[in-house]
Write a structure and sequence with these properties.
Length: 90
């Protein structure tokens, strides 16, 4: 397999902190990036959760919020049904 180079720009502190962690794990930046790219091609999706951390407050327009919740939120015709689901969960 032929190799190619990828050049990226990143924050120097982020790079340094990441390299320390990768070193503790016994790998380098190239290995990590290749692992992520392989998972991306195998799964056809980003191989990790991409979200805004809870401690960052950001006002999101209602329409955008509803788009983010699509498939994660539903309205039951039976008002007690969600409570039944919660009781099963607990």
């Amino acid at each position: 397999m032929a190799s190619t180079n990828i050049n990226i720009r990143t924050d120097s502190q982020l790079k340094e902190e990441s390299q320390k962690i990768l070193s503790q794990l016994g790998m380098d930046m190239t290995t990590l990036i290749n692992m992520m790219l392989r998972q991306l091609t195998y799964k056809k999706t980003i191989p990790f959760d991409v979200s805004v951390p809870e401690n960052i407050s950001k006002k999101i327009p209602f329409g955008e919020l509803m788009g983010m919740l699509k498939g994660k939120m539903w309205i039951s015709e039976d008002f007690d049904e969600p409570l039944d689901c919660m009781e099963e969960y607990m």
